[in-house]
Amino acid sequence: MFAFLTSSIGKKYIMAVTGILLVLFTLGHMVGNLQIYLKPEAINKYAHTLQSLGGLLWLIRGGLLFLFVVHVITGITLYLGNQGARPIDYVKPATIKATLPSRTMIITGLSLFAFIVYHIMHFTLHLTDPSFSFLATPEGHMDVHRMLVTGFGNMLASAVYIAAMIALGMHLYHGATSWFQTLGINNVKYNCTIKIIGPVIAVIVFLFNTSIPVSVLTKFIK
Amino acid sequence: MNLTLHIWRQKNANDKGKMVTYKAHDISTHMSFLEMLDVLNQQLIEKNIDPVAFDHDCREGICGMCSLIINGKAHGPWSATTTCQLHMREYKDGDEIYIEPWRSKAFPVIKDLVVNRGAFDRIMQSGGFVSVNTGSAPDANATPIAKEKADLAMAAASCIGCGACVAQCKNASAMLFVAAKVSQFANLPQGQIEKKARVQNMVAAMDREGFGNCTNLLECEAACPMSVSANFIAQMNREFFAAGIK
Ligand code: FES
Question: Which of B33, B53, B61, B66 is nearest to B162 (CA)?
Fold first, then answer.
């Protein structure tokens, strides 16, 4: 098992499996947040339910952190190994068919890492704007709706989120299709479908997630 | 036609090497790319310059000896074509062409455009075979093989081991080569006995040689002169997983 995990293919399996789970989280997170389009009570109630999970919430957070750390460290390890595999590069390099997202996974990946740190400081820990902690609903719970509207009302913050969603879209464009190949799921009959799963997920996640700051900025959500 | 060629010159493995620009005169569009280099070498020899070393053997597109990164593409701009089968009708008078050796830590340059592809041989030695008792040839129909399986094995076996996949891959990964060699046996009944050890040993040998890790860019299959499909990489990943958990 150890020999498997430390081999080049094993590390790719690690990337694929952690990647799938992170994609599922991303989709779940997106669907949850889309409740912002319902009346304010909806997302506030949803947030309160999550907050009341107690130990389970920490278990989920711990699991996510583990997946994330493993995905990032393995990705960086693979990248550094690949740099070493071609010490002298071509004077005139060319690409035949590799897509831009597939060639920039390390850049979009590291950008997402930086973004997620900011995102947690912003909306989870309220470090960038401590006043978020005092936004309360009449029942005395966290007013997430108000927090999102205030947070995205800031042009700069919204710009960062939209830029990050471009990076996320690109990362998913390649990643959410690539894992099929890595796990050996390959069937001539289904290859066309497999090829578009990543791009479809990428477009969905990009459009829905970006719609939230855009809706706040255009006062569609108030 | 006349061409401007930028060619990697390196005296030996220890030399640092650099790109040198030459003018090649009187190149016919009927020549193959390697014949063009022959003509260039003749012109260099007449000027008392050391001719450019490059690999070749059959010049029929079947042996896998020729190499060359031509304007950034392994075996040049034509798909499913080896360098020896690339013809000068692709180019026009006054064109500039960059010619470089395969670049990979596992393929050290020996001289100019010639690299040492011994790493592939060592991968083959680690598992690219089936052990059978020799003797008189068995009856052709004694081992039934499904047509689809035979076709798959044949498609994998068409790999000529040139190394274009490694050279073109942004990560200098040898996955397509190793996958082809694993799959040509894995798809046949004769390859079943050593199935598990083969994939494990060949992947371990590949990792030892210092090739990069595959990131599913699929540049390999696009560069492959034999059009070996990256689907074989998926098959190898599957075989490797199955061997690892058993
Ligand atoms: S020289 Fe044999 S394949 Fe090109």
Answer: B66
Q: Are A144 and A122 in contact (CB under 8 A)?
A: no
Query: pTM of the entire structure?
Result: 0.94
Closest CB to A186: pick one of B6, B231, B239: B231
Do the Cβ atoms of A7 and B204 come within 8 Å?
A: yes
The arithmetic mean of pLDDT across residues B190-196, rounded, is 93
| Ligand 1, atom 3, residue with closest C-alpha | B61
Range of the domain at B146: 117-243
B160-181: pLDDT as tens digits: 999 999 999 999 999 999 999 9
Query: Is B131 found in the same domain as B26?
Result: no
- Please indicate, yes or no, whether residues B57 and B153 belong to a single structural domain of this protein: no
- A8 and B245 in contact by Cβ < 8 A? no
State the CATH number of the domain containing residue B91. Answer: 3.10.20.30
CATH class of the domain defined by A2-89+101-217: mainly alpha
Centre of ligand 1 from the C-alpha of residue B95, in Å = 24
